[in-house]
Specification:
With about 70 residues, the protein is α+β, with helices and mostly antiparallel strands. About 20% of the residues lie in helices and about 25% in strands. The chain has one domain. The chain contains one helix and four strands. It has a four-stranded antiparallel β-sheet with strand order 1-2-3-4, with helices on one face. Strand 1 and strand 2 form a beta hairpin.
Length: about 70
Amino acid sequence: MSDRIPGSSYENPIWYRGYRIYTAATAPRGLDWAFVHEDHDIGDSRSGYACSIDDAKGEIDWMEEAYA
């Protein structure tokens, strides 16, 4: 995938609610997308993997509501 396509790399992510969503080469099988909050620190739970961009957005929405 080209790094010019949004979401194709960590450096060129899709931005959503302060999270970067990008393809993850090291993701568990079937979970092709990774997401991480821009202020993520070690031990911070604001990151994860998803099957699709929409699933990633749903997980982000859930985390933001659950930890607000």
